[in-house]
Amino acid sequence: MKTFTLQSEEPQGKPDFLKGLNKQQRKAVTHTNGPLLIIAGAGSGKTRVLTFRIAYLLQQFKAAPNEILALTFTNKAAREMKDRIKGLIGDKASKLWMGTFHSIFSKILRFEADRLGYGKDFTIYDTSDSETVIKQILQELNFNPKEIKPKTIRNKISDAKNQLIDADTYQNKFVGSTLDDITARVYKIYITRLKESNAMDFDDLLIKPIQLFEEFPEVLEVYQNRFKYIMIDEYQDTNHAQYKVTKMLAKKYGNICVVGDDAQSIYSFRGADISNILNFQEDYEDAERVPLEQNYRSTKSILQCADSIIKKNSKQLDKTLWTEQDYGDPVILLDNYDERDEANRVASYIHELKIRHGYNNNDFAILYRTNYQSRVFEEALRRRDLAYQLVGGLSFYQRKEIKDVLAYLTLLVNPNDETNLIRIINEPSRGIGNKSIQDLRKKARSEGRSVWTILQDVENTDVYKPAKVRIREFVDMINRLRSEMENGLSLTESTRAVLEQSGYVKALVEENSQQSMMRRDNILEFQNAIAYYEKGNSNPSLSAFLQEISLITDADKFDENKPAITLMTVHGSKGLEFPTVFVVGLEENLFPVGARVGFEVDIEEERRLFYVAITRAEERLYFSHARNRYKFGEEQRQIRSRFIDEVDSGVVRTETGATITQKADRFSLDESSSSNKSTGATSIEYDWETPVSGKTYKSASGNTIEYDLQDGDDPFQVGAVVEHAKFGPGKIISRTGLGMDTKVVVFFKSRGQKKLMLKAAPLQVIG
Fold first, then answer.
1. Is residue 234 flagged as an active site residue?
2. 539 pLDDT tier (thresholds 50, 70, 90)
3. Angle formed at CA 592 by CA 588 and CA 597, multiple of 5 degrees
4. Where are the beta strands (DSSP E) in 500-577?
5. Burial bucket for residue 460 (CB in 10 Å: 0-12, 13-18, 19+)
6. CB within 10 Å: which end of the chain, N or C, has fewer?
7. What is the DSSP string of 87-136?
8. Which residues 6+ apart lie within 8 Å of 139 measured at CB?
């Protein structure tokens, strides 16, 4: 193995920005020769280290900007890093090869596509596009897509690709089960179908470069010579294909720096291999290892909580996070009756924390294990007029009308794209029936030609005559639009021409329904996006715009400045941070998730996922679970998550209903009534001890107040069944306020939801 001399000494005239780094960060930044493993704990400033290291390499003339390759997992991370580097070393940062794995390697493939038999304007298929192709193949093979799910087949093909298992190998190695046999047949047709459409899926963007470098070693040598330094962020999330392609590129110079945290490896379901980071020093024997353990994000209590949970895992690299910040509030555990109670309690706490501490909506995040959990929280937040943003829902670019417009635009650069062609050939309806379309596809298959070439020669087909006329009009329209664009029509003008000539917007206006008008408005917004892109790029092209859109990830949809509470899965929260975090649904078979057919639960990964959730919090952290939860239309008893019991009990305090804010050695309680809190009522701090209902506490100012905690002594708890003299039986679904100002919301079977002042309402607990 090639050996390197470790250079950790700082040269003369060191950059001023090194002064702001701690000892370990400086060590990582100034290491410039040979492989480097940076174990970056949560909140330890890894982005800062990466950006300063790149700036350091440039300022010390170790490499030119275009000789540095920096790979990230989100466009957002890449943009943030590039902006920071520009602030340090100026405009030359714009020449860096920096971006996501998919964006960087799609860029390389655009240059080299012809070597692999693709056109440079190949289409990038997203997940839904791939599933559409697979659904068509299943139908051709006489399988029912309702019984054999296209998504299942796509996932199995994706897993195979990421492990670099081609279709032939899969057919020989994974036969035996019916599903594997079907997958093998579909896989072979699928890769052929994509190539015929001049299209690649997301996985191809990683495996095609490997194929390129193996088949054309002279091309590999070009890129090995170009990239003298390679840096990879979130290395624990890399799969086998990412591992192999970067190892190939780093072979000549060996200057590969990987940054990651094995404790945050949470993507095995999409192929991530934690062994890549665990075994890095076996792959690169002379690698330097630098742990970053000082946390700049969270309080001591939150870190203590995180450390106590992750230490339960056996597969990990040793490290212990520490911080110079205060101990802070304890972690609060909310014990709830059911999911509605849970959602109402969380909304209530957010409302109270905003009043007491001046938080804004975007200071809060509600994190859950699965997307469906968002519904009850959305309802609870709406009832309190609390603005929220749902991250991970339907993307703007996944909406039907936007996908349709993108399909039209795609045909202008790649008319051989069968999936997008079939999508809009009769959208809006132009009298081309499904039978005619299927006949054309069958003819294309039998003759080994693309559907587009068949359409251009439609007169020589057996298609129904009226359909031939409509097809010819469609083909003429696409050719005319392509010609106009090639003759200098701008992207904005081309998009407008597509919408007008296709009749798409006209059809929506004529439908004149609320839904069609919303779709029209979305298309208008899409036109704004096109105009914004065109204005912001010196050399805009439709092909580049379509590529940019196709590579947008869920993380890119998050707007941290939007004045809204964030609702998202824990997976979606990775890399983010919030002053206050609620981790909800902490129950067995939910978090940790329950076993699925064909899959074993990886408890260590679930525990790492919980660790990620904990370390998103800066100041306050809440855990929440429900004792009952509706599943399949029935209320079922829940067992609280094992993770709750694994956390250091010294940092957790359980609350069963009172709205109270505890500090390290005291608790805060509003002395005024809840009705006038918005007029400037102040919080009064009391010497801390365990609160006792009915006891009088004295503040520093000499005022006294009776503390009325909702506990076992108070029967009017959330979930209690009550009887009202006028409204009849009902159930308490939420409770706010304290003492004489306590209010409850009761759902009555006969009268619906009512908000009542507890001291005045004629209520009696009956169950």
1. yes
2. confident
3. 90
4. 565-569
5. exposed
6. N
7. HHH-GGGGGSEEEEHHHHHHHHHHHHGGGGT--TTPEEE-HHHHHHHHHH
8. 145
Among 319, 430, 616, 620, which one carries the catalytic annotation?
A: 616
Residue 178 falls in the annotated catalytic set: no
> By the 8 A CB rule, do 13 and 234 touch?
no
Measured in degrees and rounded to the nearest 5, phi and psi for residue 599 equal -130, 135
List all residues 6 or more positions away from 624 whose beta carbon is below 8 Å from its beta carbon.
Answer: 333, 334, 336, 342, 345, 346, 582, 583, 584, 585, 586
Nearby residues of 160 by Cβ (< 8 Å), 6 or more positions away = 166, 170, 174, 187
Does residue 563 have a cis bond before it (omega within 30 degrees)?
A: no
Residue 67: active-site member: no
Q: Looking at the chain, how many residues does it have? A: 767
Q: Which of 67, 233, 288, 341 is catalytic?
A: 233
Cα 736 to Cα 34, 369, 386, 710, 730, distances in angstroms: 60, 27, 16, 10, 17
Strands 68-72 and 229-232: parallel
Q: Which long-range contacts (CB under 8 A, 24 or more apart) does 680-683 make?
A: 683/356
Output the six-digit token pair for 366.
Answer: 């509600």
Catalytic residue among 67, 234, 338, 363: 234
Kindly state the helix (H) or strand (E) to which residue 544 belongs, with its residue range: helix 542-550
Diameter over CA atoms, the chain: 96
572-575, long-range: CB < 8 A, 24+ apart: 572/391, 572/392, 573/365, 573/367, 573/612, 573/613, 573/616, 574/264, 574/266, 574/612, 575/74, 575/76, 575/77, 575/234
What is the spatial distance between Cα 287 and Cα 132, in angstroms, rounded to a whole number?
45
**Amino acid found at 736:** T
Instruction: Please report the DSSP string for 294-357 in residue order.
Output: B-SSS-HHHHHHHHHHHTT-SS------B-SS---PPEEEEEESSHHHHHHHHHHHHHHHHHHH
pLDDT at 33 over 80: yes
Catalytic hit among 26, 27, 46, 297? 46
Clarify whether 233 is annotated catalytic: yes
79 among known catalytic residues: no
Lowest mean pLDDT, pick from 172-181, 478-487, 502-511, 591-600 = 591-600
Q: Which of 736, 144, 8 lies closest to 384, judged by CA?
A: 736
Among the listed residues 47, 461, 662, 717, the single catalytic one is 47
Q: What are the angstrom distances between the C-alpha of 399 and each of 171, 191, 420, 552, 668? A: 36, 26, 14, 14, 47
Q: Of these residues, 74, 136, 264, 304, which one is catalytic?
A: 264
d(CA 264, CA 309): 12
Question: Which residue's structure tokens are 């400037």?
Answer: 680
- Respond yes or no: is residue 286 known to be catalytic: no
- Nearby residues of 571 by Cβ (< 8 Å), 6 or more positions away: 266, 267, 609
Nearest to 196, CA basis, from 472, 441, 551, 544: 441
- Tens-digit pLDDT profile for residues 383-419: 999 999 988 766 788 889 999 999 999 999 999 999 9
The residue whose two tokens read 């100041």 is 619
